[in-house]
Amino acid sequence: MRKERLIVPVLVVLLLAWLAGQGISSLLFERGMARTLDDLAARGELSVERHDVERGWWSSSGRIRLAPLLGDAWQLELGYEAHHGVLSTEVSGKAVIRYGTDGTRLFGDSLPAAAPRWQASYRTLSGILEGGIRLEPFRITQEDRELNFGGGQFHFSGVYGDWRLQGRLDEWRLSDGDTWLASGPMVLDSQYAYTEGAEAFTQQDRLEIASLTWHQPGLDLDAHDLVLVNRMILDDRELRLRIDLDLGEVLTADQVLLTGAVDAELSRLHGDSLRRTMQRLRSLAASGDQALDGQALLVELEPLLLASLQDSPRLDLLELDLDSPMMKLSAQVDGALFFDGSDLDELSLVGLDDPATRARWRRRLDGDFVWHELPTVVALWLGLPLDTRTLQIDVARGQVRVNGRPLPPLRR
């Protein structure tokens, strides 16, 4: 009898614990989503909104809208329904992509395919969100034009402050009569880690394209194994951007037209000025001032953008290694270019169409580059001795000299 008396209290405790778990799971899901969306908006690139939100212990729903911070070129709406469990929350919904001022739907209005659906799972205890979305194949034809898309899929995962996106697009082909552009599979791997409010972040993207083909009457270009790697870091001091491009092989007429790689880094962009620029952009977007066109926006942001140059940015060409067996030309170049960041009040971004303004910007440039193993035809074109094997390129206050001589006119 005593054991039977204990059953009811135990069941009540278990029920209360389960209900508490449900409530905590719903609360943690909402808190995690709010923090993630706030930090996404903090980057200063996107407008992030949530509409039609309904919160509950058992389920939640709503719509997330992503769009460029300024303008209406596109918008992404993610509808979601979340079903909360004690240990995890299952989320699913529809992704609607709109473009243009009238909000035309990409899937459904412009393309003969249903809007893709996405699904994810949020683990309550660890805070890990993992999910994916699949794009179905479609084919669209308009007179002689045709787009044949083979589909694709994307997978995302991560926790607050550390996210990863992986994707693959299958073969696609765009044709217009006898002219067409076709791509083999594309693979994307993107990682984004950040501190609260995106005050500092690191983003690395890697894009691999198996093949890219351009065909028109009289010309065929085939590129294989293209790889583009981008790494962006914003820390306490500066923003650094490094780009590494591997061209693989570009062929035409069954000959190798071009192969090689480019590796460059832009650094010393003032970190606090860029953060203030992002904050100002968010403030302008929140004000809803539609009167700001591109020129007016540039006037508004000009002091902040100029301030980002105060540490004298530099562009390092770490490697430029190109070879054209077909043309019997090659280029191995390295060097650096510096921008003088003093007395920035003398400069303007607004009047860059004025030759005098552009000249003031050019006079801020200094640097030097070295072209190793200079091809003879380039030496001939530059009016240098034919046995010249090293080309020293010097930039002083915007004026370019090659091996101590003024750069000859590029057009003759």
User: Low-confidence segments, ≥5 residues, pLDDT <50?
Assistant: none
Helix-and-strand structural type: alpha+beta
Helical element count? 5
Number of strands: 24
The proportion of residues in beta strands is: over 45%
Mean pLDDT across all amino acids: 86
| H/E element order | HEEEEEEEEEEEEEEEEEEHHEEHEHEEE
Measure the end-to-end span. Answer: 107 Å
Dominant shape:
globular
**Helical residue percent band:** 10-25%
Radius of gyration: 28 Å
Oligomeric state of the chains present here: single chain
Largest sheet: 24 strands, antiparallel
Structure description:
The chain is α+β, with helices and mostly antiparallel strands and 412 residues long. It has a domain at 218-412. It is built from five helices and 24 strands. The chain has a 24-stranded antiparallel beta sheet that branches. Helix 2 runs antiparallel to helix 3 (294-307). It is globular, with a radius of gyration of 28 Å. This is DUF945 domain-containing protein. It comes from Billgrantia gudaonensis. InterPro entries: DUF945 (IPR010352).
What is the compact description of this entry?
By secondary structure, this protein is an alpha+beta fold. It has helices spanning 2-42, 271-287, 294-307, 355-362, 376-381; strands at residues 46-54, 59-68, 74-84, 88-99, 104-105, 117-123, 129-135, 138-142, 145-149, 152-159, 162-169, 172-176, 179-183, 186-194, 201-216, 219-234, 238-252, 255-270, 314-324, 329-339, 365-372, 390-396, 399-402, 405-406.
